[in-house]
Amino acid sequence: MRAAGEIGATKALARSHAEASPFNFRAAVARHSLPYALIAPALLVILGVLGWPLVMLLWLSLQHYGLRELFQHQGTFVGLKNFSTILADPQFAYTLRTTIIFTVVNVGLSMLFATLIALLLERVSRFVRVLLGAGLVFVWATPVIPAVNLWQWMFDYEFGVMNWLLTRIGAGNYLHHNWFENPLQGFSVITVIVVWGAIPFLAISLHAGLTQVPRELVEAAQIDGARAWQVFRHVTVPTLRPLLLVLFSLSTIWDFGVFNQVWVLLNQRPAQDYYLMAVFSFQESFRVSQYGLGSAVAVVMIAILVVATFLYVRQTVRSINEGGA
Amino acid sequence: MRRGIARTGYDAIGVLVFAVMMFPIYWMVSTALKPGTEILSLTPYWVPNPITFDNFKTAIAVPFFWNDVVNSLVVVLTVVAISIVLAFLAAVAVARFGFRGRSAFIVMVIAVQMVPLNALVIPIYLLLDSVGQVDSLLGVIAYYMAVVLPFMIWTLRGFVHNIPVDLEEAAMVDGASRVGAFMRIVFPLVAPGLVATAIFGFIQAWNEYIIAYVLLSSSSKQTLTIWLASFTTQHGTDWGGLMAGATLTALPVVVFFLLVQRHVAGGLTAGAVKG
User: Fold this and answer.
1) Best label site of A148, A186, B66, B174, fewest CB within 10 Å?
2) Structural domain tally of chain A?
3) DSSP, residue by residue, B119-145
């Protein structure tokens, strides 16, 4: 199928070149400008609504932009002062460190559980596979805000089912336990929400990837005496490397930018212990009205993400150039 | 024999994982169906008995519910209707033509999806503020379009790419014009993909939170995801109402998602799965 498409595309190209003869000059011009006409509207919207704010964000991060500037619609250029301010701010250091740890833990746990579930899906009977697959799709479909609300209810200090359950199974006395007094415990709850929400997409993608691992390779390894772990380590993982790379980058990007879970879970008033980068940037701008400082935080956030994004974009572009769909 | 035992063991773990993953959703729906005394109970009631729809009635009676349903629908439908057309045109260009700047365009489409939205909310707020479009659905619509467009272009590109050019050429040999061949051959084949992509765009826009939260400050202009906060007051949270509201907000998304998941799930990892 893909090969056919490739040949077709080459033919189409060849044809458009053939038609670019002087006898049919106007048609040739039309043909050559057609793709540009087709992408123009979408390009305009993307550049206007995403590109322009992105440039403005960079510009804002170099300005002093407080309440007075908000009314005048005009900031004051201060160079890199915002960056030196936030770098000297202990809250920024705390937030950056927390966000990095949070991202590593969440990406790690999401990928670990997703891989285990994907491997499990290969080993269960047809009925359980359909059942579990349907369950995963259900969780995946649940929108994030209702999902945060339902976890908020499950971890409610008074009537939450989790406190009852943990007490019941003998994990200690959790009756009337407030999970959000201690940020470590609070972040554990946020991690549960993020990982629970991330597992379905990752597990289903990995399971789809696993079905692409050539049977013969696995069997050959088994004949050579490889154990299950060795097959996984030396056959499965190398085959899935491109997919794993994409899933790792996407998870990193998503988890590094977590905002909704913290914001909604803590009733839109997160304590400073709960600041992740996105929350910090938001608070600096919209609570303290220091839009310049908030933009500087956002710029640092994007700069860090560019690294993770780079690997993902390179992988995707590479596979298009190889002709994949 | 041993293999059979292992299979049963894996099946048991599979069912357990299913139960753990699904429990929160079950708990949301069952709480929504419980009478107040069963919700505020130190020992949980596992099954609502009797089943009551009072929480749903409360939720619908919360001020601005219908108003916000309409807002959500207006925003989302406008966004989807316009962006599906723009995305389709761009997808055809990328899938069917080789042109200078094609790679750059593709890189932009992928990279732009990676910019965290909450980083851009500051300049967007200030931009719309300076033209007096804060607290207007128009600003939200413009922004959501840019959010769903890259994903739509990317997914549709895959659908168009999978239709062999030979089909079009055959039609042209038989005397159809280029546009005619495209409309009669390619369009019907891409139609299911268009529907799936449109629904996925619907879901993305319906679920969005932070832009609507920052831009839409008056209650009469909010969308449903923002409306959900109205169950929490200084006096505490109405959990039954909140769970009913959450169920109502999630329901259209879940239904739609189940319909199209199979078709568009590959979009994000399209480049990575070989096949």
Assistant:
1) B174
2) 2
3) HHHHHHHHHHHHTT-TT-HHHHHHHHH
Pair A27, A147 in one domain: no
State the smallest CA–CA distance between residue B273 and chain A in angstroms.
6
Task: Indicate whether A219 and A91 sit together in one domain.
Answer: yes
**In 3-state terms, what secondary structure has residue A178?**
coil
Locate B226 and state its tokens. Answer: 């923002």
Full pLDDT tens readout for chain B, 275 residues: 566 788 889 999 999 999 999 999 999 999 999 999 999 988 899 999 889 999 999 999 988 899 999 999 999 999 999 999 999 999 999 988 888 889 899 888 888 887 877 888 999 999 888 888 888 899 899 889 988 999 899 888 888 888 888 888 888 888 888 788 888 888 888 888 888 888 888 888 998 999 999 999 888 889 999 999 889 888 888 999 999 999 999 998 888 888 777 666 555 454 443 33
| A207: containing domain | 81-321
Chain A contact set for B123 (CB, 8 A): 53-54, 56-57, 60, 295
Residues in chain B: 275
**A35 lies in a domain?**
yes
Superfamily of segment(s) B62-267: MetI-like (1.10.3720.10)
Whether residues B118 and A70 touch (CB distance < 8 A) is answered with: no
Q: Let me know: does A102 contact A255? Beta carbons within 8 Å.
A: yes
Is A44 a member of any domain? yes
In a domain, A69, yes or no: no
A218 and A256 part of one domain: yes
In a domain, residue A215? The reply is yes
Type of residue found at A3: A
Q: Give contacts of B 57-86 with A, CB under 8 A.
A: 83, 86
Reported ipTM exceeds the 0.85 cut: yes
